[in-house]
Amino acid sequence: MTHPDKTAHPGMTPINDTMLTHESWKIFQIMAEFVEGFERMARVRPSVSIFGSARIKPEHKYYQLTEAIAKKLSDAGFSVVSGGGPGIMEAANKGAFAGKAPSIGLNIQLPHEQVGNPYQDISLSFRHFFSRKVMFVKYAAAYVVMPGGFGTLDELAEILTLVQTGKTRRIPIILVCAHYWQGLVGWLKDSLLNEGMIDAADLDLFKILDEPKEVVEAIFTHYEHRGIEPTEEEKQILLDL
Question: Is residue 66 within 8 Å of 52, Cβ to Cβ?
Answer without folding.
Answer: yes
